[in-house]
Amino acid sequence: MTKPSHQDFWNARYASGQTPWDFNGIPADLQAFLKRRVRGSTPSGAGRGRVLIPGCGAGYEVKAFAEAGFEVVAIDYAEAAIARAHEAIGPELAKRIVHGDFFTHTFEPGSFDYVYERAFLCAFPPELRVPYRDRVASLLKRGGDLIGYFYYKNPDREEGPPYGFAWGTSDELFGRHFILLKDVPVQDSVPVFAGRERWQEQRRTAYTGS
Ligand SMILES: C[S@@+](CC[C@H](N)C(=O)[O-])C[C@H]1O[C@@H](n2cnc3c(N)ncnc32)[C@H](O)[C@@H]1O
Description:
Elements: H1 7-15, H2 28-39, E1 50-54, H3 60-67, E2 71-76, H4 79-89, H5 91-94, E3 97-99, E4 112-117, H6 129-139, E5 140-151, H7 169-174, E6 178-185, E7 197-204
Parallel strand pairs: 1-2, 1-4, 2-3, 4-5
Antiparallel strand pairs: 5-7, 6-7
Residues 7, 10, 21-22, 55-58, 75-78, 81, 101-103, 118-120, 123-124 line the site of S-adenosylmethionine.
C-alpha cells in the first residue's frame, strides 16, 4: 500500500470515494473569518489579500475566498483531487489550482498574506511538520497569517491519517515563527475530527533564525 506522503495514496482515496475529511461546503469558522475580513481592514491594503490553500482537495474554499474578494492560489498533487475540484467549483475557479507539490513548487517567498489550513497538515506523518511550518513561514509575508483548522489526536485511536498533535506540541512547533492570535474549539467538525479540531489564527513573526 502507498504511504500518505505519496500522491497515489490520495488518488486512490478520491477514486474509491473514501474521503471522510470532505466537508462538502464551507465550515462556520471560515465563514465567520471571511465576513470579518470583508468588513474589516486587510494586511496588504488593496483587495482582501493573497491566500494560498495547500492540499486543497475538492477546493470549496477556493470558491469561498474568491467570492470574498481574495486572490486565491491553491495546490494539490493528486490528479483525482483536482478532478473532484473541477466538479465541485467548476473549471473556471479550478484554474486557480496548481497541480504540484506544496513543498517543492516554485512559489515566490514572502508572497502570501494568508495560508489556509484544513486537513492538510494532519494528512501526513509528524516528521513533515517542521518542513511544513518552515515552508508556510517562508511563503507568508511578515505579519501574514496561517489560519484554519488544526487536529489534535485522539489517544484511543490508532493514527495516521489523520495524524494529530498531542496537546502542547503544536505550540512548540509553531512558536518558532508564529504568535497564536486565536484558538477556539470547532463546533461543526466532520465525524473523523469531531471534538478534536480547533480553529486557529497564527501570525508570522519577524524571526528568521535557524
Ligand atoms: C485529507 S485531504 C484534505 C483536502 C482538503 N484540504 C479538504 O479539507 O477537504 C489531503 C490533501 O492534501 C493533498 N496533499 C498531500 N500532500 C501534498 C503535497 N505534498 N502537495 C500537495 N498536495 C498534497 C492530497 O492530495 C489531498 O488532496
